[in-house]
């Protein structure tokens, strides 16, 4: 393999910045234990069903007027932006939840639940076996 190619590849890998700490999927000094992950997913499930499922359907599958949140998941930053500030596309409008104390502080947990649904690690309905 040519030396220039290897150096270019190495530079590209080293220049990629890791996800920021504290975000879902981000690196942290200590990896959370499984119980903490389970609690976050279960809390996300509860928050999703209390607020989001009315439009986005049960289990994030979507409805006739709101998109699926598990078919093509958004990156966390974009998801948080839409949840906080809302979005309007054509005749479809989602209000923002930045001032909702039942949603805004729990966006990361809602995202974790939807991410687990998208990955297939959590099935439909209440996540079974979570602590």
Indicate the topology.
Blueprint: H1 3-15, H2 34-56, H3 76-85, E1 87-89, E2 92-94, H4 107-119
Antiparallel strand pairs: 1-2
Helix pairs in contact: 2-4
Walk me through this protein's architecture.
There is one protein chain. The protein is mostly helical. The protein has a domain of 87 residues: Orthogonal Bundle (Cytochrome Bc1 Complex, Chain D, domain 2), CATH 1.10.760. It contains four helices and two strands; from the N terminus they run αααββα. Strands 1-2 form a two-stranded antiparallel ribbon. A hairpin with a 2-residue loop joins strand 1 and strand 2. The N terminus is likely disordered.
State the distance separating the first and last CA atoms.
50 Å
Helical segment tally?
4
User: Mind telling me the CATH class of the domain at 33-119?
Assistant: Mainly Alpha
The CATH homologous superfamily of the domain at 33-119 corresponds to Cytochrome c-like domain
If you average the pLDDT, what whole number results? 74
- At CATH level 3, the topology of the domain at 33-119 is Cytochrome Bc1 Complex, Chain D, domain 2
Second CATH tier, the architecture of the domain at 33-119: Orthogonal Bundle
Shape: globular
| Biggest sheet features | 2 strands, antiparallel
What are the segments in which pLDDT stays under 50 over at least 5 consecutive residues?
A: 1-23
* SS elements, strand count: 2
C-alpha Rg (nearest Å): 18 Å
- Percentage of residues in DSSP E strands: under 5%
Provide the structure class: mainly alpha
Largest beta sheet: strand ordering: 1-2
N to C succession of SSEs: HHHEEH
């Amino acid at each position: 393999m040519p030396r220039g190619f290897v150096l270019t590849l190495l530079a590209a890998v080293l220049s990629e910045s890791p996800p920021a700490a504290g975000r879902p999927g981000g690196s942290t000094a200590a990896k959370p234990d499984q119980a903490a992950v389970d609690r976050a997913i279960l809390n996300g499930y509860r928050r999703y069903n209390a607020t989001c499922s009315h439009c986005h359907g049960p289990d994030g599958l979507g409805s006739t007027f709101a998109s699926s949140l598990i078919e093509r998941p958004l990156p966390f930053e974009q998801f948080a932006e839409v949840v906080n500030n809302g979005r309007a596309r054509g005749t479809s409008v989602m209000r923002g939840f930045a001032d909702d104390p039942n949603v805004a502080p729990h966006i990361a947990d809602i995202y974790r639940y939807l991410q687990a649904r998208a990955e297939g690690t959590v099935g439909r309905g209440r996540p079974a076996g979570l602590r």
